[in-house]
Amino acid sequence: MRQSDIQSRHLNKNNRVGDIVAHTAFGEFGRLLLPHDDNTRYYHVPLRNVASLMPYHSRVKPDDVLAALNDMIDEVGEGNKIFYDYYTEDQKRQNPDKKNTGLFFFRGKPGAPMAIICPGGGFSYVGSLHEGFPLARELSKKGYNAFVIRYRIGSGRWATEDLAAAISYLFRKARDLQVDTGGYSLWGGSAGARMVGDIARDGVSAYGGDNLPKPAAAVIAYTGQAAYSNDFSPAFITVAANDPIVDIRTVERRVANLKGAGVDVEYKRYEHAGHGFGLGTGTEAEGWLDLATRFWERQLER
């Protein structure tokens, strides 16, 4: 199929979940765009009801999902690669679960700093459609190179090991990908924020990755993880008071503990945005990504 034909096949709310997997632009990695390892039971669901695939998330906006997916379709239509394996074929043969991993690339300016986004899902699914791709799209529009990680489901340890492997891969491939790894940031929501917190506290090598610097900024959204350390990465932390999953008191104790340890922390509390609000479109949390980006930029200036 010609690139112009691929580009013209945008998805809309009347398409079904199965149309994502079947789309020519996505090929063999199309299934990894979706939350579960086996999504066949959802293939009939119209994209207007895409929220039903991600029960731990709220404020799922089909328009945000579709805008990100259609940008990816356009990228492929322009001849750009958008999916990268951070595990080798040999590693995937040794551990078949690693076949369900990869990185989706939203390009910014060549040579610009990179961000890695870790969607949540309680380690039972990966909510990239809502909490990964739309955020990466916004960061790429700001000129940053943004990656969304697809990690193994079933274990927080596995997921963080996958993140460490992905960071190591991007450091090795930075020149080819035209990304700046210096001052990189990690972004995570809910379970994904636990992964970010693990690396911000313990470092990349603690989870099997290379001996690399910690992120310049850790963006941590709505997680009940309480761990901290004196050398924790500078952190932007956000949550809603009415979050039905995360106890805001746990979050605020962590903020206080980090600040007490001398860590640079910016905390943004919302009252009614719920859990898993993604971009926060249509809620009081809308615009939080801009605040987090400015926090990261301040770390880059240091």
Structure characterization notes:
- With 302 residues, the chain is α/β, with parallel strands linked by helices.
- Helices cover 35% and strands 15% of the residues.
- It has helices spanning 3-8, 17-22, 62-77, 89-94, 128-131, 133-141, 156-172, 174-177, 191-202, 248-260, 288-300, and strands at residues 83-84, 102-106, 113-118, 145-150, 180-189, 217-221, 235-240, 265-270.
- The radius of gyration is 18 Å and the shape is globular.
Main features:
eight-stranded mixed beta sheet, alpha/beta, globular, 11 helices, single chain, 8 strands, about 300 residues
Task: Itemize the secondary structure elements and their pairings.
Layout: H1 3-8, H2 17-22, H3 62-77, E1 83-84, H4 89-94, E2 102-106, E3 113-118, H5 128-131, H6 133-141, E4 145-150, H7 156-172, H8 174-177, E5 180-189, H9 191-202, E6 217-221, E7 235-240, H10 248-260, E8 265-270, H11 288-300
Parallel strand pairs: 3-4, 3-5, 5-6, 6-7, 7-8
Antiparallel strand pairs: 1-2, 2-4
Helix pairs in contact: 3-6, 7-9
